[in-house]
Amino acid sequence: MTAPMRGVLFFRLRKGLHLGERWSLHRCTPVEFRHDLVNERAPLMKILVTGASGYVGGRLVPALLAEGHQVRCLARTPAKLDRSPWRDRVDVVQGSIGSDLTAAMAGQDIAVYLVHSIGVGSDWEALERSDALHFAQSARDAGIKRMVYLGGLGRDDDTLSAHLESRHDVGRVLASVGVEVVEIRAGVIIGSGSASFEMLRYLVDVLPVMITPRWVITKCQPIGIADCIKVLVYMINESSVLPGVYELGGKDIVDYAQMMKTYASVAGLSHRRIFVVPFVGPNLSSHWVGLVTPVPVPLARELVRSLVNDVVVSGRSATEVAGVEPISLREAFERALAAIANDNVPTEFFDADSNYYRLIETDPEWSGGTMLRDLRSAKTTVSPEQLYEVVSGIGGARGWYAGEFLWKVRGIIDQLFGGPGMRRGRRAKLAIGDALDFWRVEDLQPGARVRLHAEMRLPGDAWLTWEISEDRFGTHIVQRAEYRPRGLLGRAYWYGVAPFHRWVFPGMLNGIVADAERRRNAGEFT
User: Fold this and answer.
1) Helices (H), ranges, 392-486
2) Biggest alpha carbon distance in the chain?
3) How far apart are CA 201 and CA 195, in angstroms?
4) Would you report the helix, strand and coil content of the chain in percent, each value rounded to 5?
5) Closest CA to 163 of 122, 130, 117, 196
6) I want to staple 307 with a disulfide (CB 3.0 to 4.6 A). Which of 77, 215, 263, 479 is the partner?
7) How far, in Å, CA of 424 to CA of 397, rounded?
8) What is the pLDDT of residue 182?
9) How far apart are CA 136 and CA 426, in angstroms?
10) For residue 284, what pLDDT is reported?
11) Are 411 and 399 in contact (CB under 8 A)?
12) Domain boundary assignment for the chain
């Protein structure tokens, strides 16, 4: 072999390993190696991932692990990651973006920024800037070499919505402290469980005729979630990628009306009629979206306002740099619907820690910290494990055992005031942090305890707890509804609904016990 040939072969071997491929010495053609080679080498990099409990982060982490990286997750509530099949393969540090990040960033090579505060509070843009600056300065002080940030598409010279302007501003703030930043500006992400997809899916599923604002003729370039993850992994893997802004869009450029019609076709729905009118503004649109879809009004409002901007790739293409051939919009919809049909939705947009449904006002100092309670108990001969199985299966399609009509009415009222209502349902098996109708699972102790925290719109905070214990007389269950009112309105609310509580809460507890005994007698427990 001549010297030039040896040089070419060395270059191709080196390039192949760098890109994550094994190259044949005989033909110099790539063959996939990732899963067999990953066990033969040390992890490539140490990577801190923020937002690991969120929609994109929960899918990015296993992809990085498959590459052989060591992954550390920053999580405000680490227990929310316990249901993830990769939990025992990552290091988890408890904390938030605004807290001391010294422990989270120690020894890391790359930090991935996937968090946002869109719609949370009246000054959420300032919170986003503050969090980004704190994160960037902490990364610099920790000696982190590079940050990878997922933002939003939109031209800098356009008059951007508050959402898109804040996404771009976060990128600028991250890059302002001297650490290299690869900013990926993504279009609408299409995948089962994403906020944009779920908003579109519910609107089209529910409404055969839609009266819409002019934003439905705005151009967009949606990207499938799988392609988004591929590009993120590439940008993290490849140290040769120059810092700067990269724009991420899919194969098709469409307007939102075309996107809705494409979804209807893929879903097998009848033709959807869309009528565009000029007088429907973002506020009215967001309340309508909040009523029809699982997307909360504060988030819907910012998403709808962003629809006035064309979001198409006009600069450096992230898919071209990463060598990713994006799938079509139709195929992205097909994959999303197949995942839903197969109950294979690993992450959803409301998995992330969220304050969308909580009011920000606090009690004045004079109002105290009163906790109002409804306490009930019962005894049964079923085992604690069997009773826990019934309690942890409450909600969703199974219902709440008493006052189902009232639960539905309460859900509709909640939707009207911008809350989640009863639309979110539940997963088959609960984990801490899961959404459950208009509750969030706060604690689970198998055979002993289930605790839910309300995310419905309330002038206060509410919890629903079941505690199970056993003694020589049988199994005891204590059901506790707790409410911490906010000001006079909070107290008025509690006493106003108290008559319904006197009917619903006893019926719910009796229904739980009766169902557990019926299932025990029918041999339905495993």
Assistant:
1) 404-416
2) 92
3) 10
4) 40, 20, 35
5) 117
6) 215
7) 11
8) 97
9) 36
10) 64
11) no
12) 44-351, 365-521
Q: At 142, which helix (H) or strand (E)? A: helix 124-142
Cα–Cα distance measured from residue 206 to residue 299, given in angstroms and rounded to the nearest whole number: 20
Domain 365-521 sits in CATH at 3.30.530.20
Task: For residue 42, count CB atoms less than 10 angstroms from its CB and return exposed for 0-12, middle for 13-18, buried for 19 or more.
Answer: exposed
CA distance 389 to 516: 8
CA dihedral of residues 204, 205, 209, 210 (deg, nearest 10): -40
Do 420 and 357 touch, CB atoms closer than 8 A? yes
Computed on alpha carbons and rounded to an integer, the radius of gyration of the chain in Å comes to 25
Q: Which of 118, 221, 129 is nearest to 163 (CA)?
A: 118
pLDDT for res 488: 65
> What integer pLDDT is reported at residue 133 of this predicted model?
95
* CATH class given for the domain over 44-351: alpha beta
Residues of the chain with pLDDT under 50: 1-42, 350, 352-369
C-alpha to C-alpha distance for 234 and 251, rounded to whole angstroms: 18
pTM over 0.90: no
Q: How much is the pLDDT for 513? A: 94
Three-state secondary structure along 59-75?
A: HHHHHHHHCCCEEEEEE
Give the distance, in angstroms, between the CA of residue 110 and the centroid of all CA atoms in the same chain.
Answer: 22
CA atoms within 13 A on the CB side of 486: 12
Q: Are 76 and 100 in contact (CB under 8 A)?
A: no
Torsion of CA 509, 412, 161, 182, to 10 degrees: 30
| DSSP string of 425-466, one letter each residue | ---SS--TT-EETTEEEEEEETTTEEEEEE-S--SEEEEEEE
